[in-house]
């Protein structure tokens, strides 16, 4: 579908004491379903801010985000949270696995927040996802017993358990060595090929830049 995810004249201003920081401004973009957008830019250029606005984790100071024709700025906090839970998956550098739950339970968590699903089918689906990422032997382990790369793969599985239409990832491999990082990106690319999920990624990984439908570079909050 044309214009599945659209940003119109997005701007975000943060207030710090009596100082204002323009994190991003004049951002316009439009993605079709299944497209991969890779965002480049130096530290502080507004990459995370842009992802947070597009993912409905924060609201713009000006402009709007349209998802499949729906203006996210018109939704209540509650409705926006529901859209995030049902349609979006997030993968961050600090993966926030809950240490008191097993790997399998961590992956299942979004389902407890969202709509009620058949728990047996969900467990099978979670196990399948974990197997896909080479973690079939670890489902009953706790996060602390896994390496950084393994934990990050658990975080992808968790982001995918709701079968989201859009995956947001913000420098997810920043803590990983090259091998673990490349494996992570290969897993993600395979999902894009299989399910045509839309990806919005902040990464400097060159493989992803080549695979991207579009690469956007930010400098001081603007597209260059
Ligand atoms: N919550 C916040 N409060 C104040 N300033 C912020 C906040 N988040 C980000 N900024 C500022 O906005 C700019 C863009 O930040 P960010 O989007 O995190 O950039 P990047 O992800 O490219 O490193 C930076 O100048 C940063 O200091
Ligand atoms: Mg950032």
Question: How would you describe what is shown here?
Answer:
This protein is of the alpha/beta class and 224 residues long. The protein has a single domain, classed as Rossmann fold (3-Layer(aba) Sandwich), CATH 3.40.50. It has seven helices and ten strands. It has helices at residues 47-54, 77-87, 103-113, 119-132, 148-160, 178-195, 206-211; strands at 5-16, 19-31, 36-40, 62-67, 70-71, 88-92, 166-170, 198-202, 214-219, 222-223. It has a six-stranded mixed β-sheet, with helices on both faces. A four-stranded antiparallel β-sheet has the order 2-1-4-5, with helices on one face. α5 (148-160) runs parallel beside α6. The longest helix has 18 residues, at 178-195. Magnesium ion (MG) binds at residues 47-48, 170.
How many independent structural domains? Answer: 1
User: What helical percentage do the residues reach?
Assistant: 25-40%
| Number of strand elements | 10
What's the SSE pattern?
A: EEEHEEHEHHHEHEHEE
Annotated CATH homologous superfamily: P-loop containing nucleotide triphosphate hydrolases
Q: Terminal Cα separation, in Å?
A: 26 Å
Low-confidence segments? none
Bound molecules: adenosine-5'-diphosphate, magnesium ion
Question: What CATH architecture would you give?
Answer: 3-Layer(aba) Sandwich
Structural class call reads alpha/beta
Question: What is the topology, as strand order, of the major beta sheet?
Answer: 6-7-8-3-9-10
Radius of gyration: 17 Å
- Specify the number of helices: 7
- Reading off the top of the CATH hierarchy, the class is best stated as Alpha Beta
GO molecular function: ATP binding; ATP hydrolysis activity; transmembrane transporter activity
GO cellular component, one term: plasma membrane
Domain ABC transporter: 5-224
InterPro entries: AAA+_ATPase, ABC_transporter-like_ATP-bd, ABC_transporter-like_CS, ABC_transpr_LolD-like, MacB-like_ATP-bd, P-loop_NTPase
């Amino acid at each position: 579908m044309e214009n599945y995810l659209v940003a119109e004249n997005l701007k975000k201003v943060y207030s710090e004491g009596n100082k204002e920081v323009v994190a991003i401004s004049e951002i316009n973009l439009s993605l079709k379903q299944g497209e991969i957008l890779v965002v480049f830019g130096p530290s502080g250029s507004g990459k995370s801010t842009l992802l947070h606005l597009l993912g409905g984790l924060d609201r713009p100071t000006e402009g709007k985000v349209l998802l499949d024709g729906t203006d996210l700025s018109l939704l209540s906090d509650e409705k926006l949270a529901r859209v995030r839970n049902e349609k979006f998956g997030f993968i961050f550098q600090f993966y926030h696995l809950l240490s008191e739950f097993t790997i399998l339970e961590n992956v299942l968590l979004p389902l407890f927040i969202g709509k009620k699903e058949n728990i047996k089918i969900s467990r099978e689906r979670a196990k399948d996802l974990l197997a896909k990422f080479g973690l079939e032997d670890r489902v009953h382990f706790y996060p602390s017993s896994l390496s950084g790369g393994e934990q990050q793969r658990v975080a992808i599985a968790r982001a995918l358990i709701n079968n989201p239409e859009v995956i947001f990832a913000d420098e997810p491999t920043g803590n990983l060595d090259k091998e673990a990082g490349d494996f992570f990106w290969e897993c993600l690319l395979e999902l894009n090929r299989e399910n045509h999920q839309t990806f919005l990624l902040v990464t400097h990984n060159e493989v992803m830049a080549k695979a991207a439908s579009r690469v956007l570079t930010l400098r001081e909050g603007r597209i260059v």
